[in-house]
Amino acid sequence: MVNLTIDDKQVTAPKTATIYEAAKMNGVNIPILCHDKKLKPFGACRMCLVEVEQMKGRQIPACTTPVTEGMIIRTSTPDIVKARKMVLELLLLNHPLDCPVCDKAGDCDLQNLTYEYKVDTNRFVDEKFHHEIDYNNPLIERDMNRCVLCGKCARICDEIVSFGALTFIDRGIETKIGCEFEDGLNCEFCGSCISVCPVGSLLARPFKFKARFWSLTKQKSVCGYCGTGCNLTLGVKDNKVLTTLYDENQGFHKGQLCVRGRFGYQFINSDKRLTSPLVRRNGRLIEASWEEALEVVAARLKGGNSVAALGSSRLTNEELTLFKKLMLENVGSSNFDHSAGYAHSALTSGFARSFGTTASPASILDIQKTDLLFVIKTDSYETHPVIGFEINMAVKNRGIKLNIISDKRGKLSKLPGANTFVHKPGSEVSVLNAIAKSILDDKLAVGSVDSVQGYAELAEALKAYTPEAVSALCGLTAEDIKKIAREYASADKALILFPIGQGYVSHNQEMSCAVANLSILTGKLGKEGCGVLCMSEKNNSQGAVDMGFFPRADGMNAQQILDACKNGSVKTLFVAGENPIVSYPDKSKVTTALEAVEFLIVSELFMTETAAMADVVLPACSFAEKDGTFTSTDRRVQYVSPSIRKNSNCKTDFEIFSALISKLGGQTPVSSSLLFSEISSNTDGYAGMTHVSLRKESAFASVNVKPKLIVPKASAAVSSEPGKLAMVTGSALYHSGTLSQFGEGPMHVCPEAYVEMSRKDAANLKIHDKDIVTVSSPTGSLKLNVKVTARIPEGLVFVPYHFSAAPVNAIWDGAPVTMVSLTK
Amino acid sequence: MLCFRILFMEQVLFKHNRPGRMTTFDEYRSEGGFVALARALAGMSPDEVQQAVIDSGMRGRGGAGFPTGKKWSFVPRNLPGPRYLICNCDEMEPGTYKDRVLLERNPHLLVEGMALACYALGVQHAFIFIRRGYEQAADNLRLAVAAAHGAGFLGENVRGSGFSLELDIHQSAGRYICGEETALINALEGIRANPRAKPPFPAVKGLWGQPTVVNNVETLANIPSIINGGPAWWKGLAATPEAAGTKLFCISGHVVRPECFELPLGMKLGEIIDGPCGGMRPGSTFKACIPGGASTPYLTKLHWDVPMDFDPVAKAGSRLGTGGIIVFDQSTCMVAATLNLIRFFARESCGWCTPCREGLPFVRHILERIEAGQGQAGDIDILREHVRLLNHAFCALAPGAMGPVDGLLNHFEDELQEHITAQRCPFEGTHS
């Protein structure tokens, strides 16, 4: 810490702070246009000039000058005010004064500073710019006429998003922010650039002319898409969520969002939302009263073991707990599951065996503390973009090592120094086992490892996985495998990341054990910057696991439930928030099962394909209309309160389950916060948490690891078939589950499914980018748009799973790899 | 009398020059070229070379006049990784052409000077960042580097000394801002040539984040003679006891011989014009001059006897700069001259910081208006404010750009006022 004087006040600040930061920490606000705390200092706007006595009273920029001991700083002398006023006058020379029609008005740094410094007349006059406004994409409007060239958009796109869509072009007064070849914006559309723009140059098009900034109520919430657990500020007016707003102090991610979080909110106020309970009469779904609908449902739930439930990992912890209570205590059935029954197996079965817990022994914060990141699948960026930003920053700012094993290349592969080892699809576990074998062979394991339970069995089993033997089937060289092992083991701190989800069948319990083994063998566990982070798919996937919403020994899992529906042993199926017809593998199997089951209850936001088959449809509420807690992938428990009032004819799932428990004669909880108290006392790691405490600040549920080495079984290698390509599925960057189909933002950028293939295969098959092809597998065929990209290796095709219009499960039965043929 | 003095003035930079062509490597060697390097490698430690440069009193010839030895001493010797030396040959300031003349005549001097500097600094990879337009100079440099390589003065283990050096010539894409050392480093790294924030200074964190020294061509070309003749002798080449060494003055404008001369530092302005330059053109009388390239405030007849050295010129309210003297006679409209310069600077602003990007075009706009006979009463005040404000810019481009405007306001306010009052340029039709 250093001592300094700011405006006659004695203060202290860390040695590394700039004058700007030191002032801010001590409550002195220095005006600035080009600063964002997430970005590197820039020093361009010259608004933050201050005087430092030791520098002969020269005016110097506060944002780039580091503090030194004894500095005497004045932030606002008549001279400084005069200089700042002049900077504003100069900026206003060319800046159009179209504030009445600018969406930024009220939230505009330039406007606010002009007001603050009373620049009521401009002695300077010059011509305004006449740049063409970029309307080339549906999400981000770029109006360079309003730009003050603070560079924040270009910098955030480079420093954090690592896309580099924007940059400075030309020079002098002609300088502007442009895209490559002065074309329109064509990027990931995360909107980070919008969030940091101090003026109205970059605007969210979906919000244009929706509301004035000052008429919005700012509601804090938690994103409802993936498991990262990003915090949101929703802009609400007239009980409608109209936009998301930037708050640089929010969350570990400091307000940073991806395309889904920023632009995917429209499903909340969609006019396609269900507004009335529906009951099937004479083959048609007819509007009914809640009383009527719940009566029918309650009657059907009195079936004991013949009743089964599929929940969604987008429900709150309280709702999932209540759903589980309803099933176990009031219905009397232990047949309940979520996420197709396998997407959580890495945690519920894998980590349960390896770590003795169903949670990840690492947090997202460890990414910034580690020395080496070992990522399994480049898709980690697509599934969890904001975690992807953390990876970008760790690699670019701290120069940490990044090794990736993946069946395809991806955005992470482009990071400086990143090594991507592309293996054959489906061979993940073999590769990981070979790495473990190499660790043992090269004596890279920690000394005490042979005392870990399961060591002998593992060492014996790994004999079949020499790097040389695995090399032949996975496509990596033995030297690659040894190198990965060496670098992982020798790094001081190393962290492994891998995504799970319905699209990642091979990321199952076997793989998570194989990953866990690496961390146990090398002692990369239980230390800061070490461990394994299993990136759960949906916003409350980890919560669903923590709440135990998955079957124990006596219950059926999701796949068994579907089988039982088909064979008649399950007669009533209650689906809350899932859309198995689109998201579960093997569409025809799911359809047959849902057709066969006697009675289908669906609680949903939308008339999904699954809801359309139901006997009773219950209109539920989104995350923005209810209270409760969500648990992020790294077990951060966060409280959400309603951002808007729900439609009076919808009920939250909490209310639905409560009403049903009551109808079945059970005891209903008084409130979700009381239920949460019960949860925190019963759930491992949640002790002491209450809604009241979480409302103030989120908390991490502790993870207690009891390591054990487990022998992971590698699935049999997929044999290639002549003329066929290996299809893998997974997530597209812009989507999460099937919910994002109801978000306008994601659908604007990525409206439909596609098949992504290599240039070489495309050339061989005489298929071109944007062609429509028929993809056929043993289970069916599907017409898809073609994307020819450089990242896909020869022999592989990738089809994302989110879309009901072209559901990949029509050609995919849940196998990690499916052999398909493509025809025009 | 004057001619007599010039005849006996010792030259070190132009000593080996041949009329109309480049000195060959063999010619340079036969006249004592590379002796300094060989001597340093054989008998001097790097610190001794650096000390010689410190003792010589050498101040950087690129414009700022920072003591060269001191700059070198800022390089930390204990950081891991390579260090770099960059020769700044992005000579683009209007009125300055000394480096071009030097390199077109004798590029070997620079190669030897750089080798000595690299030896002193522990640099194994150095770069010459040369302006795109200097095709001939770049060609000559390539020949010189190849010849030095061939003779074993560059490359691995030079003359068995254990010292190795690679010298790369980078032809810049060409922007005035690239002459700013941190923008130059950015350009060399292949990114947009914006200046970087200081601190960290390049001496600590420069090219690719490593300690880097950026020196001007003329600065480096002087090192061999400092080593050869000794620092005291070299310092004594100047015209005054305070000054050190010789300086290349490149003169343009209304004089008889507008050429580049190597003259003792500290020679008086009047002596330079009346002596080597052959006086003013017939019919011309001296009105003002730019003493050191387009970014320096004007000197007038009042400054005729100012010694052309860093401190005396600074005391006179200007800067010695690069030694690029532009002489104006009585027919010159100083508003038009200033406008001409401001047009250049406004165009060459990188566009990074507000005062420079927005301020310079606005100053240009005001001067254009005044020159066109549409000046307004408040214009002089606005210009004055801009001289102050543009000092707060990110780098030295904008303050430098305002140098001529500052000079205009200090010495020719009457002329400016006359433009505004008369609503026309008083020199209309008399421009030569």
State the gist of this model:
The complex is a heterodimer of chains A (824) and B (432). Chain A is α/β, with parallel strands linked by helices.
Describe the structure.
The complex is a heterodimer of chains A (about 800) and B (about 425). Chain A contains 25 helices and 33 strands. Chain A is α/β, with parallel strands linked by helices. Chain A has five domains: about 1-75, Ubiquitin-like (UB roll) (Roll), CATH 3.10.20.740; about 130-265, Alpha-Beta Plaits, CATH 3.30.70; about 280-340 and about 540-685, Rossmann fold (3-Layer(aba) Sandwich), CATH 3.40.50; about 345-535, 3-Layer(aba) Sandwich (Dimethylsulfoxide Reductase, domain 2); about 725-824, Barwin-like endoglucanases (Beta Barrel). In chain A, the strands form eight sheets. A seven-stranded mixed sheet of chain A has the order 14-13-24-23-22-15-16, with helices on both faces. In chain A, helix 8 (about 315-330) packs parallel to helix 21 (about 655-665). The radius of gyration of chain A is 28 Å and the shape is globular. By secondary structure, chain B is an alpha/beta fold. Chain B folds into three domains: about 20-235, NADH-ubiquinone oxidoreductase 51kDa subunit (Rossmann fold), CATH 3.40.50.11540; about 240-330, Ubiquitin-like (UB roll), CATH 3.10.20.600; about 335-420, NADH-ubiquinone oxidoreductase 51kDa subunit, iron-sulphur binding domain (de novo design (two linked rop proteins)). Chain B is built from 19 helices and nine strands. In chain B, the strands form two sheets. In chain B, strands 6-5-9-7-8 form a five-stranded mixed sheet, with helices on one face. The radius of gyration of chain B is 22 Å and the shape is globular. The two termini of chain B are about 30 Å apart. The interface of A and B includes residues 42, 44, 66 and 151 of A.
